[in-house]
Amino acid sequence: MAEAYIVDAARTAVGKRGGALAQVHSADLAAHSISALVQRTGVDPGAVDDVILGCCDTIGSQAGDVARTAWLVAGLPDHVPGVTIDRQCGSSQQAVHFAAQGVMSGTQDLVVAGGVQNMSAIPISAAMLVGQQYGFSTPFAESPGWAKRYGDVEVSQFNSAEMIAEKWDLSREEMEAYALASHERARTAIAEGRFTGEIVPFPLADGAVFDTDQCPRETSLEKMAGLDPLAPGGRITAAVASQICDGSSAMLIASEQAVKDHGLTPRARIVHLSVRGDDPVWMLTGPIAATQHALAKSGLSVDDIDLFECNEAFASVVLAWMKETGAPHEKVNVNGGGIALGHPIGATGTRLMTTLLNELERTGGRYGLQTMCEGGGQANVTIIERL
Predict the structure, then answer these.
(1) pLDDT confidence bin for 125, thresholds 50/70/90
(2) pTM of the prediction?
(3) Active site residue 373
(4) Catalytic residues per the record (predicted)?
(5) What are phi and psi of 369, to 5 degrees?
(6) Is 215 assigned a catalytic role?
(7) By three-state DSSP, how is residue 155 classified?
(8) Any residues with CB less than 8 A from the CB of 292 and at least 6 apart, and which?
(9) Which one of 55, 134, 165, 202 has the fewest CB atoms closer than 10 angstroms to its CB?
(10) Catalytic site residue from 56, 89, 215, 310
């Protein structure tokens, strides 16, 4: 099968809720990463076959196929199309998969894959709430077919995170210790400039330039212990959950022929890509079986992987995943994760992959594996090899 290569990657710094990027139109937010990607690679934008962006809650500034709009806002050629996809939290990781599959199939040579989300402007689940205002059914509760299959059970990421903590016997204290490590790792990464090469500074309306992730906090176990749980008697608090935030990210995926024709220097090869489903009520357990499947399919073991990125939707998700897969914490989310750096849903997949790529280069690692839990009980897995 033909190879698919990651030529380069770029992202904005992640803005906290109500922070530096809160007032930025989503199309302009995505256009910024796309423009930087084109400039960094020096590729002829007219040679790009497609633009695939992940985005959830595609209403308001994110409606109307924001991938197409962002490309045009960036001032790039009219004839290049764009498509917006929604695989919930894994949307932009899936964008990379679709881009790579287009290249591997021989039907495409150059594809921009990425994602965008302005969660300050358009709150999480806004599309569902808008639908309810107009009298439309919710995705789960009012479906007779769903009720027949799964019963009258509330489908909620918060419920899932709590269920996982209980099933894998994860104490609140254990999860808070993990969350604190995420913040400490992120602050260290920022202080050492590990993200500098991947972040594209964003000029703000007031003349300032935004170039540093805003979400990491100065916190402590004592502060975390004082928070109320999200559910009475529960173990999950805001301290062990990913942060609502804003950002965009983009990658250029190329075929071997495009690399030769355009004089490109790829930074990584895509070794494996897959997506699996799990129980949608449990929802967030998907990465466990998906990772096991990916390793078996690729012929690699946990020991072969130098770095892992497992999205920190909640601390319980990553802790359970590490227990089941054997991935050691010293190789997982080494620069912090969504608890500290935020989770701009549609943009997170390629944000994580951008960071994974840069960290493999910084440390000299060979293989990196990325996975993330997604709505509907799904999980993508991508394995890349640094070149």
Answers:
(1) confident
(2) 0.97
(3) yes
(4) 89 (acyl-thioester intermediate), 343 (proton acceptor), 373 (proton acceptor)
(5) -120, 135
(6) no
(7) coil
(8) 324, 325
(9) 134
(10) 89
